[in-house]
Structures are given as structure tokens and as C-alpha cells.
Amino acid sequence: MRRAHGYERCIQGLARYYQKNPGRRVEIHFVGDGEEKDYYQNLASQLHLEEYVFFYGSQAGKELDPIYDKADAGLGFFGLYKDKMSTISSLKSVEYLAKGLPVISGCVEDIMKYENGKSFFKIFPNDESVIDIKEIVGFYDSVYNNNKDRNSVHREIRNFARQTVDMSVVMKPVINYILGEKDDQ
Question: What pLDDT band is residue 151 in, cutting at 50, 70 and 90?
Fold first, then answer.
């Protein structure tokens, strides 16, 4: 977890959300370590969000599966503005798509360029504003079509990932170039 993740925006948004006594439960599950982890943990504690914000530390491979199984969406980057950046190419978001999860981000990610996948992304402004969790709930409802079968949604997103960000698709222009073949895209 590093400064550019900007997850304080999400944690602060969750605190505002719960101050209004909402009817829907929203949780954030963080996986990883890094320079900002203590900051995020302290912020969640100061805002009394211990029952809604969870920290797992570094996880890999099969350790991640039960955490992904709980997830309805993946959080991208929310702090790129701190480094004066506006777009990113994030392996994290590609992994979310491969797991069948929609992506919520505070910046434009290169994988958002595909027209057929626009409904799988929610983009917030790339600034210090607090994330409106009600907007995330609305995005969730639109993706899952008000209780559409979760597995079918995940399948649809995974199919999108296979067609657009799978290594065989991404590397095809490079392989074609090396082989001297024309790229068919």
C-alpha cells in the first residue's frame, strides 16, 4: 500500500456513509502491506470502522481466493493526483477483471478504453475528494442488475478480460511484429 493508492478517500467515504445510518452494509477488504498500511489502519480505527474495514497483509495465490470470494468489486488507484498523474496501467485492475470483479477507481486506467467493458468500471475524480459510497452502491446495483445472478456477472466480466487483457491478446501485436506479420487489429 502506497501513497498513490489514496485509500484514505474510500475509508473517509465509508465513515460518512455510516454516519447517515444506511440500510446496506458495505465493507472494504485490504490485502497488502507497504508504507501506507499503518496510516490506513489508524484512520479506520479513528473513524470507528473496525467492523467494516479489514486488513489481511500480504497474500498470494490460493490465500487470495477466499478474500476474492467475498468481493463484489475491486478498488483501483485513488491517489494518482498526489504524483501529478492522471492515468495508469494497473496489473491490480486486470487481476480484478480476471476474477470477474468490476473495478472502482479514482483515475482513468488504460483498460477502461474498451467500449464493451465500460459498464464494468466506475471512475471517481482524480483529486482529494472523499469517495461517495452511495455512488458505489448505485454502481454495484447497475452491474449486478438488482440481484442478477452473481456468477453470471462474474462470467461476463471474465469473458471481457479474456477478449481484451489476456496475455495472448496483449502480446499478439508484439509477436506479430517479431514474426513480421501484419497486426489484424
Answer: confident
